[in-house]
Amino acid sequence: MQNQLRVFFLLFALSxxxxxxxxxxxxxxxxxxxxxxxxxxxxxxxxxxxRITGLGDLSHASLVYSPDARFGYVFGRxxxxxxxxxxTQSIVGRxxxxxxxxxxxxxxxxxxxxxxNYEPGGVRVFDADTLELVADIPTGSKTIGLVDIPGTRFxxxxxxxxxxWIVDLSDAEPEITKITGMGANPYxxxxxxxxxxxxxxxxxxxxxxxxDLWQHKPTPTPxxxxxxxxxxxxxxxxxxxxxxxxxxxxxxxxxxxxxxEVLWVDARDLIQTGRTKTHGQPVFAxxxxxxxxxxxxxxxxxxxxxxVIDTVSKEVIHQFTPGPGxxxxxxxxxxxxxxxxxxxxxxIMIYDTQNFEKLREIEALNPSGIFFTNRAHKMGL
Amino acid sequence: xxxxxxFLCCASTAWASEAPTDGSALKRLVHQDCGSCHGLTLKGGxxxxxxxxxxxxxxxxxxxLVIMDGVEGTAMxxxxxxxxxxEIDWMVDYLLTGGE
Lengths: 381, 100
Description:
A: about 375 residues; four-stranded antiparallel beta sheet; B: about 100 residues; mainly alpha; Cytochrome Bc1 Complex, Chain D, domain 2; iron (chain B); heme binding (chain B); Cyt_c-like_dom_sf (chain B)
């Protein structure tokens, strides 16, 4: 008994300080897509502080955080849902929940993690503590654009059917609202930080579609109708991404599909307010947290470049080439620095967002998504 | 001596990228960039499974046309603007045989 106690105290002494001495507010995780691993990074120190391995196929992987910003839930392409502990830098749970997945979200109360699947098409919801299946929502279609909104609800869209579904998990039985007529082949979607406006990008139609989620039964509203009318559609070598930080000041900035430009829309009435010619087919158009600048990266083969657009003049004010395969950009919570993953250079590069000076390079193996823990406290990310 | 080595490295890199079929660069392109839609392991994503066993109904010529011209009405773009005929030939062989 005494020995057991001793072992217990010894373990406590060894593990407790490591777990409790480190706050997570300025940490993050970076996906190493080909290695099935995550780098644990520290924003303030501009450093990698560890690596978590064994997460399977992480191509196109994304992740969300628990409300206490200690655990990450990682959505792998191979259908794996993995729960990692940032403090102990280890895997604490893992389920193979489908054959082919694309992303996920965590509910407002932190109780449910939802995963969007291509194969079999649908959404599965898991208990955030145990990773036990809570709800299975087959759709018969590839699902995309899964986001969380208030009221313990999730919203997602159907690539094959052009529908958007709202799932309410606040009662014992999930309640599903289906909205048809969103348009052809929604490829991704975003929700605003207040959870009110859901915008789906369409591959198969020459517009995007918005929903006002404050309406009892939201009606699809086409926006930016005919934005490419009369112009030849350029080949799209990578689908753009839509995320909640498309809001820059009072306007959304959205990537066009098949055109080398970003489109500006008034956030209130959803009327087009401008367009900006860009270097290539935009993939991410991300507003700096203060909304003053928008950073844009591009699809293959122009994916070595970043452009920075001023949101007042809507003009490109800075262009540079971090290196081959710029896949993602993540701002520090207040936007003073930005981390950029440069896949083919095997590096994460950190820039000052005021003077664009490079501050640090961090070695990483084919890095893709960068996720800072402040996402834990934001809707739709 | 080091300078000579560095020079030779540069020279061979430059030669490799201009050569008609740089297998390792094309293989990387297939997995990393075709992989945007078809998945890093090519088992499918927004686009279909393109592993060898899933492509057996294609002959080489048809598959090279699919890559060159894309597939109308789907998200598959035409790669003709970016790839030479010999590069596409290499890619077709790689996709059909898995590089075996």
